[in-house]
Design a protein that fits this description.
Chain lengths: 290, 244, 317
């Protein structure tokens, strides 16, 4: 096995992991605060990608700038979904939540199909042309930029959650929803914000990734499943877990592509998922279940 | 041969000793009260006896059979039934159907189980409510249902976990009569209870737990007068009716 | 004989003569209604009654279909035998998934994900192993030979599908009236309480899972020999799992008539949506309808259409 190939895979996987992390952080935030599993997560990300594509094609806006708009748009979508739908079933049995979000996923995915067609799309960014050499390994500028921006956004989210009142309320609600209500937190507002922020994360992630890979409406499902994989491996509701998990899964998939075959790389993440589900369902960073 | 023999029962949760070296025995037909302050480990003992928790150490013998390592449903089939402190009815099933599930443990067919269930429902006084959904019952009736379900499995030993909690004085009286009748009918009862009037009047013997350890055991009268028990739990104001 | 039973018998009689009255297109629509009702009913045992939501049942269709197709193509084994082998293989996978899930205490969302993971693994493997057809999948040559589970006349498929649906429905009804069914319903509501009442919940759930996956696997043979092709993405993929799950959910999970009612509601709706939208060039729009319906059911009719219908009938009676 050519060490350069392995090294290339590692680097590539690591950088891509930034996006996976951002995606997973959004999902785990929603789950942590609201105990809702967002089955539509991947499909929201696909919409982030398509919005970036629209901005690029119709307004000539580079995705590395336009991601802010995508994040904003998805934030609004998240609010709408939360206020209109999720809020009504917060106390319902889990099966109902799963089915509701599955319904949302179906609507989003097929709305994208109707709007944009089934063929893969790709966003052209002038930045995706450049490459940098780090020793014997090369990395494209776009990927590096994606990683960097994803890291910045994650850091910004962390600051938001630890330094702002709303962020702290979110964490409080995640820890103890009843207690949070008792001290006067407007839990509805916190829930809506959490869902919105989670959606914004994934919208930004979508935009950042749109220049790196071709995408199509059907990609949504795979992305959802990958998000769940990461969040479970890292620990449901744990932000550091989602962060580390994202990089871990990305690297694992990359290694899977190098050692097995590109189309089998999903087997690696599924294998990891099953192993974690069985032996440490709390995930790497989660609290072990009572 | 005693019905229940517990020797050296021990359970830790991390660094916390929930139950430490507990010895306990019950004779057939006996009603044993298990009392103590909150967190003393009483429900943990129930969980250990009924197979929901595995002890770290110690032995449990029920009618001569070793219980440690058996699954809850196996223990139930041997004749040891329990109720839960926070009642868990099947909300979408009727009262009768709730008990029917229990009756199906004795392998009769559906029609027999239904008959048996009807009988038990009448016995606990829920006859008028037999076809109502369990989800809509009052707390007192839910407690009766919880009791009825455990009875439906035709146990020889019944573990009742705070079956009076949350009930008002009238309801407690009714429950005391019911539990007394069940015991008089031949079923041994191990009773966790905070209501002292109920425990003292019902129990043949009482065991007192505090911080996972047995600090006293004896007749209700002896317990009411026991210094350690008064300090740990009862308080100076408690006066046993026989001493008044 | 009660009015309901009379109506049902009349309905079955009507369905029996239908193929001789209507055209081939409608017969095909009915075949899909029956077939998906069958799959939905099989799912209903473990997903509806036992409450263990599985979003990976397509895996069993795939395994059953691939098994009987390969046995027929490579070994000349008649699918009439192959379908049982396919069912057993599917049941074996079901047993593995069930054991891993139930033994390790995976509930709700975690169990759903486990089922999805296994289905996806099957899909990726089928996609990449050339020995079972790889990315191209399997194509069954049309011979029209009944011994190979192939029929010239669409109407024979109609009756086969109808029988499958009726048999599965009768089975579920039988289960509902027995101890097994009572246990399933109780387990769905509170497993720990069941354990305390002497119910071997692991065993009951395993039986439900194995039965469900077996029946679904048998259905895979019908799928293979009706459509004459098996594509990994189509037969193992989540879209098929969604088709399987949505009918019982909309119709009423955990009821006897739920999957049937759901199929009679959804398949025509899907057909209409498909034809209407296809005219405008909108493929996949019928899935938007599925999604909206799912959302509506969860918000307004969480128990499904059948229980709501029953309440309506009772109130007006």
């Amino acid at each position: 096995m050519d060490p350069t190939l392995v090294g290339q895979g590692l680097l590539s996987g690591f950088l891509f992991g930034g996006v996976y992390s951002l995606m997973a952080v959004g999902l785990t935030l929603i789950f942590g605060v609201m105990r809702v599993v967002n089955f539509a997560h991947g499909d929201m990300m696909v919409w982030g990608m398509y919005l970036a594509w629209l901005l690029s094609v119709r307004a000539g806006v580079d995705p590395y700038v336009g991601f802010v708009v995508c994040a904003g748009a998805l934030f609004v979508l998240g609010l709408i979904i939360q206020r209109g739908l999720v809020e009504r079933i917060v106390d319902a049995p889990h099966e109902m939540q799963i089915l509701l979000m599955l319904g949302v996923a179906l609507v989003l995915e097929n709305a994208a199909l109707v709007a944009f067609g089934p063929d893969p799309a790709r966003v052209r960014s002038p930045l995706s042309q450049g490459t940098l050499w780090i020793g014997p390994l090369f990395v494209d500028v776009a990927r590096l930029l994606t990683f960097g921006l994803a890291m910045i956004l994650t850091a910004a989210l962390w600051l938001f959650l630890t330094r702002t009142d709303l962020g702290r309320s979110m964490r409080a609600a995640a820890d103890n929803p009843y207690g949070a209500r008792v001290i006067g937190t407007d839990v509805r507002r916190v829930y809506a914000a959490a869902f919105g922020v989670g959606a914004a994360c994934v919208g930004a992630a979508g935009a950042l990734v749109s220049a790196l890979l071709p995408f199509q409406p059907a990609s949504g499902l795979g992305l959802s499943v990958t998000s769940f994989n990461i969040v479970i491996i890292g620990g449901m509701g744990s932000l550091p877990g989602a962060f580390v998990g994202g990089i871990l899964v990305s690297v694992a998939e990359s290694m899977g592509a190098v050692f097995l075959s590109p189309s089998m790389k999903e087997l690696v993440s599924f294998g990891l998922l099953i192993a974690i589900l069985l032996f440490r369902p709390a995930g790497l960073f989660g609290r072990a279940a009572a | 041969m005693s019905l229940l023999e517990v020797a050296g029962l021990q359970k830790r949760f991390g660094g916390l000793l929930a139950v430490g070296g507990l010895d306990l025995s019950m004779a057939e037909g006996e009603m044993l009260g298990l009392i103590g302050p909150n967190g003393a480990g009483k429900t943990t003992v129930f969980n250990l006896l009924s197979g929901f928790l595995l002890p770290d150490d110690g032995d449990i013998r029920f009618a001569g059979r070793r219980l440690v390592g058996l699954k809850p449903h196996e223990i139930c089939r041997l004749g040891l039934a329990r109720t839960f402190q926070i009642v868990r009815p099947f909300p979408q099933l009727s009262v009768r159907d709730n008990v029917k599930i229990a009756a199906l443990a004795r392998p009769p067919a559906m029609p027999d189980a239904l008959e048996a269930a009807r009988g038990v429902v009448e016995r606990v006084g829920l006859g008028p409510r037999a076809l109502e959904l369990a989800g809509g019952l009052t707390l007192a009736d839910r407690k009766r249902l919880e009791l009825a379900r455990a009875l439906g499995t035709e146990p020889s030993l019944l573990l009742l976990d705070e079956v009076m909690a949350g009930l008002n004085a009238t309801e407690i009286d009714a429950m005391v009569r019911l539990v007394g009748a069940i015991n008089a009918g031949g079923i041994s009862v191990l009773l966790i209870e905070h209501n002292m009037r109920a425990v003292m009047s019902l129990s043949h013997r009482i065991v007192v737990l505090s911080f996972g350890e047995k600090i006293a055991s004896g007749t209700p009268r002896e317990i009411a007068a026991d210094r350690r028990v008064i300090e740990a739990y009862l308080g100076e104001e408690y006066v046993h009716p026989a001493q008044a | 004989m009660s009015l309901v039973k009379l109506l049902l018998l009349f309905a079955i009689a009507a369905l029996a003569v239908l193929p001789w009255i209507v055209g081939s297109y409608l017969v095909t629509v009915m075949i899909f209604i029956f077939f998906y009702a069958y799959l939905g009913q099989a799912w209903n045992i473990v997903g509806g009654y036992a409450g263990q939501l599985s979003a990976g049942h397509a895996a069993f269709v795939g395994i059953g279909g691939y098994a009987s197709a390969l046995l027929s193509m490579r070994l000349g084994l008649t699918p009439w035998v192959g379908m049982w082998i396919g069912g057993v293989l599917a049941a074996a996978l079901g047993a593995v998934i069930g054991y891993l899930g139930f033994r390790f205490g995976l509930r709700g969302f975690y169990f759903v994900l486990l089922t999805v993971a296994f289905a996806e693994i099957c899909r990726v493997v089928a996609l990449n192993v050339d020995a079972v057809g790889g990315a191209l999948g399997l194509y069954i040559t049309f011979t029209g030979n009944p011994r190979q589970f192939q029929f010239q006349d669409n109407r024979v498929y109609y009756y086969v599908a109808l029988v499958l649906m009726l048999a599965a429905t009768l089975l579920v009804r039988a289960i509902e009236q027995r101890r097994f069914g009572a246990y399933l319903t109780a387990i769905r509501q509170d497993e720990s309480a069941c354990e305390a009442l002497g119910v071997d919940t692991l065993r009951v759930k395993m039986v439900a899972m194995i039965l469900s996956s077996f029946l679904t696997g048998v259905g895979g043979t019908f799928y293979a020999f009706y459509l004459f092709s098996l594509q990994p993405n189509a037969v193992f993929g989540i879209p098929l799992s969604v088709e399987i799950v949505i009918r019982p959910i909309v119709g009423g999970a955990g009821t006897v008539m739920g999957p049937v009612l759901g199929s009679f509601i959804l398949s025509p709706l899907a057909e209409i949506a498909r034809t209407y939208f296809a005219q405008g060039g909108w493929t996949g729009a019928h899935l938007i309808v599925y999604g909206l319906l799912l959302i509506a059911v969860v918000l307004f009719l969480p128990q499904g259409a059948y229980p709501a219908l029953r309440r309506l009938v009772r109130r007006s009676a």
